[in-house]
């Protein structure tokens, strides 16, 4: 089913723990940041200004580049790679794999960031075939790991991060829960949805997801298009059959 594929996109090791304090690092417009298209939409408390360390492991450069693009699309202000490498070289941390949780504070303060992503590509998981990627988001001020995830690709990690950003943004929103027994396009809650509505979806296989409603799929009757991320949809939408949805929470309309 469609949601079995989606579950792989949103896999993660730990829940999001965005506990960053209100204080921020001094930042100047000339300090080498690239701003994502939705930076102001990130939930309060999430570090907006971040750096992405050089990934280590096989094919690390390509995976790191893909993750960089994905993080920008989610709305973060990301330090330019050239500026990152300059500062890392000054601190003698230029070699791939030299960035660790213990060196994040010094590097982050020099870069003027609030958080830093550290990633590693592993050749294979024990007992399984194929490479996988692990990423951590570290608070520059405290050195605490705020978020971590594993995935089969940079895309799956960004989907996981997008889903967790949605969870953080909607944690305190009131929920309108609907049991879906005979789903139809013109029945509640579907009649209330419009593009950008944030919903909690429980599928028939028992899994729950926080998603953005995009549109009805006009090519196939009773299929809905959703995406992970904060509005507007930063990642290509995918479709789910209404018959696969057991219940749905309308979090934002």
Descriptive report:
The protein is built from five helices and twelve strands. The strands form two sheets. A six-stranded mixed β-sheet has the order 1-3-2-4-5-6, sandwiched between helices. Strands 7-12-8-9-10-11 form a six-stranded antiparallel β-sheet, with helices on one face. It is elongated. The protein is of the alpha+beta class and about 250 residues long. Helices cover about 25% and strands about 25% of the residues. The two termini are about 25 Å apart. It has helices at about 1-10, 60-75, 80-90, 100-110, 155-170; strands at about 35, 50, 75-80, 115-120, 130-140, 145-150, 175-180, 200-205, 210-215, 225, 240, 245-250. Helix 2 (about 60-75) packs parallel to helix 5. The chain has two domains: about 1-170, ABC-type transport auxiliary lipoprotein component (Rossmann fold), CATH 3.40.50.10610; about 175-250, SH3 type barrels. Residues about 1-30 and about 35-40 have low confidence and may be disordered.
In short:
By secondary structure, this protein is of the alpha+beta class.
- Overall pLDDT score: 75
Rg is: 19 Å
User: How are the strands ordered across the major sheet?
Assistant: 1-3-2-4-5-6
**Major sheet summary line:** 6 strands, mixed
Globally, the shape reads elongated
> What is the helix tally?
5
Distance between the termini: 27 Å
Report the CATH architecture of the largest domain.
Answer: 3-Layer(aba) Sandwich
Classified by CATH, the class of the largest domain is: Alpha Beta
> How many structural domains?
2
Poorly predicted regions: 1-31, 35-41
CATH superfamily of the largest domain: ABC-type transport auxiliary lipoprotein component
Number of strands: 12
Helical residue percent? 10-25%
Enter the CATH topology name of the largest domain.
Answer: Rossmann fold
């Amino acid at each position: 089913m469609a949601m079995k594929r989606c579950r792989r996109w949103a896999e993660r090791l730990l829940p999001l723990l965005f506990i960053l304090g209100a204080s921020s690092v001094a930042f100047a417009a000339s300090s080498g940041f690239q701003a994502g298209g939705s930076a102001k939409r990130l939930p309060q408390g999430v570090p907006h200004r971040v750096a992405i360390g050089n990934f280590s492991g096989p094919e690390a450069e390509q995976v790191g580049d893909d993750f960089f693009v994905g993080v920008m699309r989610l709305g973060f202000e990301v330090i330019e790679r050239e500026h990152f490498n300059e500062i890392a070289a000054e601190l003698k941390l230029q070699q791939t794999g030299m960035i660790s949780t213990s060196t994040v504070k010094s590097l982050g303060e020099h870069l003027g960031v609030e958080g830093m992503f550290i990633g590693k590509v592993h050749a294979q998981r024990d007992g399984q075939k194929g490479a996988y990627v692990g990423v951590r988001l570290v608070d520059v001020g405290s050195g605490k790991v705020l978020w971590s995830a594993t995935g089969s690709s940079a895309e799956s990690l960004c989907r996981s991060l997008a889903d967790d950003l949605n969870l953080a943004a909607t944690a305190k929103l009131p929920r309108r829960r609907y049991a879906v027994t005979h789903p139809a396009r013109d029945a509640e809650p579907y009649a209330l949805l419009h593009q950008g509505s944030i919903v909690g979806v429980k599928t028939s296989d028992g899994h729950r997801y926080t998603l953005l409603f995009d549109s009805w799929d006009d090519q196939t009757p009773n299929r809905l298009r959703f995406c992970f991320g904060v509005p507007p949809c930063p990642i290509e939408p995918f479709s789910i059959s209404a018959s696969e949805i057991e219940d749905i929470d309308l979090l934002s309309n």
